[in-house]
Design goal:
Chain lengths: 446, 446
C-alpha cells in the first residue's frame, strides 16, 4: 500500500479540486435542483474508472446510478447518494454553501459531509488502487441514488426489481466518520421505523364545552388510547410487540460496556435532567441500541392559541413513531397496533400509515464487520468504536437484505450535517481514501 | 294589569322604534366601539324612568351603570349588559347588522337577542307600570355592564366593592326566552368554571426521535398526567373532587324527568352516535345538569403538519376546563389538581390558571323561583320549562351571591345569538314586557 499512499499524496491537490467541483454543484432533491447534472457528472467519473454504468429511472425519479467494476470471487456493494439537503438558512453560512472553501484544515460546503465526501473518496480510492496496485481483485457494485434526503421514495422499488444486482458479500453504507473524541466509528445497522398518525373523530363539529359531561370528546379518546400504548414506566404495552424484540446477547452487552457514551455531556447538550427511569451505564445503552421505541412526535386537538376557548374538540390526532429492532417490522407493528386498539374498544381510532422501513443489523461477529474493524485499526492506528446500530433509521434493509453492512465515512461529530457551515476535515478525507483502499485489498483475500 | 296591557298595546310602535334605536348603535366591547354612547343613551333612558343612576368605571373600563328606582320592602335586582358581539362575518347578514329590520314578525339586528331586547323590555315594562298602575311597589336595582361579551373582566371588582348595592330578594338575569317547542324557559343558575393550561417541558429543545427510548418526552408526560384526571368511563379521578359535588335530591331528579330533552335531535344536530357511557333519560340529565365536567379543550405538542416528522417534543400542553357544580369552586379545583398531580409524581406539570367563576344555582323551591314560574304561567298560558342550571358558565355568583336568581328573556331557540341574522320575535318581546310587569306587581306582595 505504499505506492497507493504515494499516489494519493501526489494527487492530493487534484483530488481536493475534484471534491470541490462535486460540492460546487447544487443537487437539492427537495427542490428538484441540479440532480440530472450531478448524475451525469458521476456517470462520467465512474466510466473514467472503467465502470459499466446503468441508470434506472422510476416514475420520473432522479436516476439511480448502478455501476460495476473489477472482477473477483467476492463482491463489495457500496451505497451513496448524490443529493444534498437544501442550504437554507443562507444567512447563517460564513461562506456560500456551494462555493466550497478550505478553512482551518476543513472543507466547508453543503453536502461535503452528507455525503459527497464519502462518495468521492471511494471513487478516488478505487482510482488509486487501479493506478498503483492493479485491477481490482473484487467486484464492486455501486448504488448511488438522488433522493436520500427526501426519504428515498424510489429506492425500495429499485431494490425489489433488481435484487440480482445487489448480491454481495459485504456493503459499505454512507455516513459515519469520527466521534467527538476523534475515534473512528463503525456502525452496523439501523433501527427500522413505523410512523403512524392516530386520528379520532367524535362528532361532526367542535362543540361548546358545556357539553363536556355527556358528549364524547375526541381529545379524551385519543389520550385514553395513547396511554394504553406505553406506560409511565416507559414500558411499551402494545400486545405482542415486545415478544418480537431480540434481547442483546451476553457478548453484545459486554461490547456495550466498551463504548464511549458521555451521559453528562448528552444531558448538558439537550438540557434534560435524567434519562428515562434513571437509566445509566450499560442498561441505558441496551435500551438505546437494542430497545424499540414508541414516541409521540406530535399531538393536535381543539384550541391551541393564547388564553382560553371553551371548546369540546370533535377531532384529535397524534403522530407516533416506533423505532424497530429485530425482529419487528413495520407491517407487524401496524397489525399489532390495530388489534391492540380494537381489543380495548378503540375501533374509532383511525391508523394512517405514514411510512416505514425495516431494521437491519449486522452481527459483531460477522467476518465483514471484523474485516472493517481490522482495516480501521490499520488506517487510524486505534481501535474503532463499533455501534451495533444507529438509533436512527434508513433504507438499509431494502437494499442490503442479508448482506452484512457497515456504515463508515469521512464525517465527524461537529460536521454540521443538515445545518449551515457543513464541513469535513481534509485529513479525515484522505484517511478515508486509505481506508477504502485497504478494505478492497483485504476484502479480496480475507 | 288591563290598563298596563292597553298602554303597551298603544305604545307598541314607539316601543319598537326605541328598540330599533338602541340596536342601531354598534356597541362592540371586543372592538371598543360605541360603548360610551350607548351607556349615555341608557343613563338618559333610566333617568326618564325616574331612576337614580350612578356610573362606575374601573381601570378605564366601559361604565357599569347602577340604577335604582321605586320603593318598597322588597328589592328586585336586574342584570343586563349593553355590549354586543362583533357583527362579523358581515357578508352572511341578509340585512345590515346595525340597521334593525322587521321581517316575518321578527326584529333582526346584532344584539337584539343578546341582550338589548331583554334590557329594553324591562325598562319599558317599568314605564308602563308607572304610567298605568302607579309608583313601583318595590325597589328595583339595575346593574348594566358593557363587557359581558368579553368575559366581564371588571364585574367582580365592582361586585366586591359595592356588595351593599347588590342586596336584593331576587334577581332577574339576562338571557333566556323560548325553546325549540316555543315553551318559555326559566333557568336557575350557571355552572362554575375552572380553566387551566397544563404545560410540561422535558428538555431545552426538540430532539431527533431516535432518542425516544431514553430521553423524556413531554407529550408522553402530558398524556400520562391527563389520563389520571378522567378515566375512559368518564369518571373524574382528581383526588377529592367528587366529594364536593352535591348530588340531586329525589325532588330534583323527579323534576328532570319532566324536562323536554330531545336526545335524538341533539345527536343529529351535532353528528355523534351516542352520549357518553350510553347515557339516556334522567341519568343523562343528571350528568348534564348536576355533574361537573373535565374537558380537554386543546392539545398541543411537537409536529402537527402534513406527513411525518421524526421529532421528540420538549414541550407539550393541554387546555382543560372543569365545569363546576355546587360546592366546587375554581380555587378548590386548582388546589386539588396540584395536589393530585404532585401525589403521582407530576410535579413537572405546570398549571396555569386561565380564569374561573363559581357555580350558582337557585333552588326549585325558592319562593322567587316559584313566583317567576307563576308569572310565566300567567303570561304565557302554559307551564314554563325550568332548567336547574345552564350547563354553561357566567359571572352570576359574583354579582348575586345568596340572591335567588332566574334567567328569563325574550330570545328563542333559533335567535342566532353571536351569529349573523340575530333576531327575536316581536310577539315574544311584548310578552316579555308583560312578564316583567306581572313580576313587579306580584313581587311586591307574593
Amino acid at each position: 500500500m505504499e505506492r497507493f499512499q504515494a499516489y494519493v499524496d501526489a494527487n492530493r491537490t487534484r483530488f481536493l479540486e475534484e471534491l470541490k467541483e462535486l460540492c460546487a454543484q447544487p443537487t437539492i432533491a427537495a427542490q428538484g435542483v441540479g440532480l440530472e447534472e450531478t448524475a451525469r457528472w458521476l456517470e462520467n467519473r465512474l466510466q473514467r474508472l472503467g465502470a459499466r454504468v446503468q441508470r434506472f429511472v422510476m416514475d420520473g425519479s432522479p436516476p439511480v446510478l448502478y455501476a460495476e467494476l473489477g472482477a473477483g470471487e467476492r463482491t463489495l456493494l457500496i451505497y451513496n447518494h448524490y443529493d444534498v439537503q437544501p442550504p437554507e438558512p443562507l444567512e447563517e453560512w460564513h461562506t456560500p454553501p456551494f462555493e466550497p472553501t478550505i478553512q482551518d484544515g476543513r472543507l466547508v460546503a453543503r453536502g461535503v459531509a452528507d455525503n459527497k465526501g464519502d462518495l468521492l473518496c471511494r471513487l478516488q480510492a478505487l482510482e488509486a488502487y487501479q493506478e498503483t496496485i492493479g485491477p481490482l481483485p473484487i467486484r464492486v457494485r455501486f448504488v448511488i441514488e438522488g433522493e436520500e434526503e427526501i426519504g428515498s421514495p424510489h429506492l425500495i422499488l429499485f431494490a425489489e426489481q433488481h435484487r440480482d444486482l445487489l448480491q454481495a458479500d459485504g456493503c459499505l453504507w454512507e455516513s459515519g466518520g469520527k466521534d467527538a473524541g476523534r475515534r473512528f466509528v463503525l456502525t452496523l445497522g439501523v433501527k427500522g421505523i413505523c410512523y403512524v398518525e392516530l386520528t379520532v373523530r367524535t362528532a361532526a363539529s367542535d362543540l361548546h364545552s358545556s357539553w363536556g359531561g355527556v358528549i364524547p370528546n375526541a381529545a379524551w379518546r385519543l389520550v385514553w388510547a395513547l396511554q394504553t400504548l406505553k406506560d409511565a414506566n416507559e414500558r411499551i404495552l402494545v400486545d405482542g410487540f415486545m415478544d418480537h424484540v431480540r434481547p442483546p446477547t451476553a457478548q453484545e452487552r459486554a461490547h456495550l460496556a466498551t463504548l464511549p457514551f458521555d451521559e453528562a455531556q448528552i444531558k448538558d447538550n439537550f438540557g434534560f435532567a435524567d434519562f428515562v427511569q434513571g437509566l445509566s451505564g450499560v442498561d441505558l445503552l441496551v435500551q438505546h441500541f437494542y430497545g424499540p421505541t414508541c414516541t409521540i412526535c406530535g399531538l393536535k386537538a381543539g384550541y391551541q392559541g393564547q388564553g382560553s376557548k371553551t371548546v369540546l374538540p370533535c377531532v384529535a390526532s397524534a403522530k407516533v413513531d416506533f423505532r424497530l429492532v429485530p425482529d419487528l417490522t413495520p407491517e407487524l407493528v401496524l397489525e399489532l397496533l390495530r388489534a391492540h386498539l380494537d381489543r380495548r374498544g378503540f375501533q374509532d381510532i383511525q391508523i394512517t400509515d405514514l411510512g416505514g422501513t425495516r431494521p437491519a443489523r449486522s452481527s459483531l461477529d460477522d467476518p465483514f464487520v471484523r474485516l472493517c474493524a481490522e482495516v480501521a485499526r490499520l488506517t487510524y492506528g486505534a481501535e474503532p468504536v463499533i455501534y451495533p446500530t444507529s438509533p436512527g433509521s434508513g433504507p438499509l434493509d431494502s437494499l442490503c437484505r442479508d448482506v452484512p453492512t457497515v456504515m463508515a465515512g469521512v464525517s465527524h461529530a461537529n460536521a454540521r450535517v443538515h445545518a449551515p457551515n457543513e464541513n469535513i476535515f481534509l485529513d479525515d478525507y484522505f484517511q478515508g481514501i486509505r481506508f477504502v483502499g485497504e478494505l478492497v485489498r483485504r476484502f479480496a483475500a480475507p
